[in-house]
Specification:
Layout (H helix, E strand, L loop, with lengths): L2 H6 L1 H47 L9 E6 L8 H16 L3 E7 L11 H12 L8 E5 L15 H19 L4 E4 L7 H7 L4 E6 L6 H8 L9 H4 L2 H22 L4 E4 L2 H10 L12 E2 L1 E4 L21 E5 L8 H14 L14 E6 L4 H16 L6 E5 L3 H10 L2 E3 L9 H8 L3 E5 L2 H7 L10 E3 L2 H12 L3 H18 L2 H16 L2 H30 L6 H5 L14 H6 L9 E2 L4
Parallel strand pairs: 1-2, 1-4, 2-3, 4-5, 5-6, 6-8, 9-10, 9-12, 10-11, 12-13, 13-14
Antiparallel strand pairs: 7-15
Helix pairs in contact: 5-6, 7-9, 11-16, 14-17
GO molecular function, one term: GDP-Man:Man(3)GlcNAc(2)-PP-Dol alpha-1,2-mannosyltransferase activity
EC number: 2.4.1.131
Protein name: GDP-Man:Man(3)GlcNAc(2)-PP-Dol alpha-1,2-mannosyltransferase
Length: 592
């Protein structure tokens, strides 16, 4: 059939009309569903807040609370991300008595495997030494957390987790719409539901590492095998091309999701640079100029206090220590080969010399799951194959006391992860007085072990030979030179990455950008006006007792009293009164 005959076919227009009607109906239903969803949340949110305040015992204390929601699905993990979460909560509680913090998490009971609120806070105190006010902190259960688990998506993991994060965003809003919403885990796709509900809700994101990076795009394009690009994919050009297109599309969507935030803070220079690039990734639309959020750096708080108490002297100069989970990106295999290389090139390290004991590598780490346990077993098999078992120590899930003891004994802190977004272990090495040897990339090189006034604070390497050569140089370094480096490194670790510095930076780069001081001043002024109106209403009520038939002007003009414990209307009254505050911290990016 020719194109002309096809065009003249009346059945074609019937099916086209049917298709257009279907699309219009679908669009209309989606629009009505969104309107109904927003209306339902607005109608029920006040009651949800009152229920939370009642559970916390703060319903009738006469305060007007601001609700700050933290999205952190894995809040019981005890890692660096959880330290950021509880440090932020503690700081908000200390600086403003009118803030209620709410954590959306999948680790709280009654969820399967969940723990009680008391256990959650006890672990935070035990692991981080942080105590928070339980009467101003509430946990809400995320029942769909499994949707962001990498094991739930064996294929197209990035896309699957993005969908899961988006669902978690909607689930979180269904339980409570806060005045300020902060993602402290890195699920950028959870931010869209918040802004879809109301652009007046302030949204922040603390990014530990980008979900996708320009380095990942480059490796797939160049067909380089690695942790994020399997060797069988890199071996076939057509498959690599398909994956590259998939990554490009995902990068554009990820950038769009990040642009929903009002403020983004990154944990280091490397993450900041990649997020800055990804914010530009978008589908070209000449008629649309997206707004870019404020982008800053806030280094995570590190436990430097206890490590800084370790003496700097009396080290076993030939001992190295590594602290890392047995994940593939940590590259423990390279560490074993570094040990073998040192023994091959410097046989004298096999035996004692004076007070120096033979070469030893101390591996301290933990396993998250069965895959990590299998990886650990393969590492032990490799150690046996390399004939280095007598020079190794394995400490799996070691207690904190063992970690401190091994840090005290060792001379070198070893880290081999490529493009480590930050490197908390390297900070701990420096605080403990170790000479650090890390990969020459990302956080350890750009933010942590950097020179101070011309003095080295750490050392870096890229290849196996460089690691072997540098490690041996550190073992032979004169004691006075090593002591100066240890002192400078410890000072940098305990000042730049301390809890106090995190709090100062959090306030300046996150909180004051999300809720500017002028916005707080406006809020306080409105509250003062409401208090005066309540006083006038009380006075008018007293006069009504003597003249019950009269209706005073004071009663007509008075502002209705809000229920005790209720906030000022979900941050809308303040942001409506001063709408420029919502856009003051955003800037335009030219369309491409």
């Amino acid at each position: 059939m020719s194109l002309r005959a096809l065009w003249d076919d009346p059945d074609l227009f019937y099916w086209v009309r049917l298709f257009l009607i279907f699309i219009a109906t679908l669009t209309g239903c989606n629009f009505l569903a969104n309107v109904a969803w927003r209306a339902a949340l607005r109608d029920t949110n006040g009651e949800k807040r009152r229920q939370i305040l009642q559970k916390l015992g703060r319903l009738n204390d006469g305060r007007m609370y601001m609700f700050v929601g933290f999205l952190h699905p894995y809040s019981h993990g005890g890692g660096g991300g959880e330290r950021v979460l509880f440090e932020a909560i503690k700081y908000q509680q200390q600086t403003d008595a009118n803030i209620i913090c709410v954590v959306y998490t999948g680790d709280i009971s009654p969820l399967q495997g969940g723990v009680s609120k008391e256990d959650m806070l006890a672990r935070a105190k035990e692991r981080f030494g942080l105590e928070v006010d339980a009467s101003r902190l509430h946990f809400l259960p995320l029942r769909n957390r499994y949707l962001v688990s990498d094991t739930f998506w064996p294929a197209f993991t990035l896309a699957g987790q993005a969908y899961g994060a988006n669902r978690l965003g909607y689930e979180a809003l269904g339980m409570l719409v806060p005045d300020v919403f902060i993602d402290t885990t890195g699920y950028a796709f959870a931010l869209s539901p918040v802004k879809n509900f109301s652009k007046q809700v302030r949204v922040g994101a603390y990014v530990h590492y980008p979900t996708i990076s320009t380095d990942m795009l480059r490796r797939v394009r160049n067909r380089e095998a690695g942790v994020t690009n399997s060797s069988w994919i890199a071996a076939y050009a057509p498959v690599s091309w398909v994956k590259y297109v998939y990554y490009r599309i995902f990068a554009a969507k990820y950038g769009a999701a990040l642009r929903k935030a009002d403020v983004i803070v990154c944990n280091g220079t490397w993450t900041h640079a990649h997020i800055q690039d990804l914010l530009q990734y978008r589908v070209p639309r000449p008629w649309s100029t997206p707004q870019l959020p404020t982008l800053r750096i806030v280094h995570p708080p590190c436990d430097t206090e206890s490590f800084a108490k370790i003496p700097l002297d009396h080290r076993q100069t030939r001992w190295m220590v590594s602290v890392a989970q047995f994940r593939p990106e940590k590259d423990h295999e390279l560490q074993l080969r570094i040990l073998r290389g040192l023994l091959d090139k410097h046989p004298e390290l096999k035996s004692s010399r004076g007070a120096d004991r033979p070469l030893r590598l101390i591996l301290i780490g933990s396993c998250r799951n069965e895959a990590d346990q299998k990886r650990l077993a393969s590492l032990k098999a490799l150690a046996k194959e390399l004939l280095i078992e007598n020079h190794l120590e394995w400490h799996i899930d070691a207690p904190y006391s063992v970690l401190l003891e091994k840090m005290r004994q060792a001379n070198i802190g070893l880290s081999t992860m490529v493009d480590e977004h930050f490197g908390i272990a390297v900070v701990e090495f420096m605080a403990a007085g170790l000479l650090t040897l890390s990969h020459a990339s990302a956080g350890p090189m750009q933010d942590i072990a950097v020179p101070v006034d011309g003095m080295e604070t750490g050392f870096h390497a890229r290849t196996l030979d460089e690691y072997v050569k540098t490690a041996y140089r550190l073992m032979c370094m004169p004691a006075d030179v090593a002591m100066k480096i240890r002192q400078v490194a410890r000072t940098r670790a305990t000042t730049t990455f301390s809890d106090t510095e995190f709090q100062r930076s959090w306030r300046k780069n996150m909180w004051d950008e999300l809720v500017p001081p002028e916005l707080i001043a406006m809020n306080n002024r409105l509250l003062a006006e409401r208090a005066k109106a309540q006083q006038r209403l009380a006075a008018a009520s007293a006069s009504v007792v003597s003249t019950p038939a009269s209706k005073t002007q004071t009663e007509e003009d008075a502002v209705p009293d809000a229920p005790a414990g209720q906030t000022l209307s979900d941050a809308e009254a303040v942001t409506t009164a001063m709408p420029e505050a919502s856009t003051a911290t955003r800037r335009s990016v030219p369309s491409s």
